């Protein structure tokens, strides 16, 4: 059956400053799945005239959809997605992906596809991996050389971040002027949310805490320098990231990974992470 845009868009409205608490409460119903949106809400304070967060409210049901470069549904039933889709469809000019819990993303995409056209790729099965125990306490060795990147190392981290993005998404994060991308990389470094291992002035390993909220930190941008792959770097380095994050940032660490990335899945399992959900991503 073709899923269509819902007609009940009157139950959807743009959320603003006065809705921050309400929106975070919706995210808190599943903080691991919803940490990305919760972190964006905290960062932005929902200050602005039109979105980018939309809320669905009817019959005691509340759901959200973040609509910026990433479109991310939160706690949305099929009925809520039908209503939200009527608003989301207008945001095509800004969107480069739809991601989040697989059931919600694939339902929403089924409603948007005929309006937005064919995607570059649909990744339907991305295990969500989570850990709350310290790796050191469950016998997993840590790489002692993994540490937060320093502010003066932004230009050292930048090519590693760009290489990881290009490998993962299939195109570079910027063309020409790197100013905006460098600012984003520097922001993570300044927060202490980029962890690295550096050897002889070169990044060997990198990982970012891309979203932190509601007691959860979501790891992204995990990358091992190609010259160091296959040498046992990844698992101890990732264990060090989890250890540092639980001790200093948030008590729950999570990430999501492509099901076809067998080496990464094996690394995360070796560290002690377990699957707690499934995401999907539509690349536009």
TrEMBL record:
Domain N-acetyltransferase residues, every copy: 144-284
UniProt keyword list? Transferase
Instruction: Spell out the molecular function terms from Gene Ontology.
Output: acyltransferase activity, transferring groups other than amino-acyl groups
Q: Does the keyword Transferase apply?
A: yes
Annotated Pfam families: Acetyltransf_1, DUF4081
* Name of the protein described by the UniProt record: Acetyltransferase
């Amino acid at each position: 059956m073709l899923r269509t845009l819902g007609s009940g868009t009157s139950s959807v409205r743009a959320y603003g400053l006065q809705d921050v608490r309400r929106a975070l409460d919706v995210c808190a119903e599943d903080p691991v799945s919803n940490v990305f949106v919760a972190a964006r809400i905290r960062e932005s304070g929902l200050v602005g005239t039109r979105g980018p967060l939309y809320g669905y409210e009817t019959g005691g049901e509340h759901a959200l959809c973040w609509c910026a470069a990433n479109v991310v549904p939160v706690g949305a039933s099929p009925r809520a997605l039908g209503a939200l889709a009527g608003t989301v469809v207008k945001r095509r000019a800004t969107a480069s992906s739809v991601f989040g819990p697989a059931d919600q993303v694939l339902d929403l995409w089924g409603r948007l596809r005929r309006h937005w056209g064919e995607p570059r790729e649909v990744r339907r099965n991305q295990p969500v991996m989570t850990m709350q125990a310290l790796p050191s306490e469950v016998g997993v060795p840590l790489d002692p050389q993994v540490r937060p990147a320093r502010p003066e190392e932004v230009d050292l981290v930048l090519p590693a971040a760009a290489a990881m993005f290009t490998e993962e998404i299939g195109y570079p994060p910027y063309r020409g002027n790197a100013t905006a991308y460098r600012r984003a990389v520097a922001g993570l470094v300044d927060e202490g949310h980029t962890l690295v291992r550096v050897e002889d002035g070169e990044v060997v390993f990198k990982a970012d805490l891309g979203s932190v909220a509601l007691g959860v930190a979501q790891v992204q941008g995990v990358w091992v320098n190609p010259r160091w792959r296959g040498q046992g770097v990844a698992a101890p380095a990732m264990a060090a990231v989890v250890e540092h994050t639980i001790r200093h940032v948030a008590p729950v660490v999570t990430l999501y990974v492509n099901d076809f990335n067998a080496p990464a899945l094996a690394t995360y399992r070796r560290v002690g992470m377990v699957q707690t959900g499934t995401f999907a991503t539509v690349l536009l």
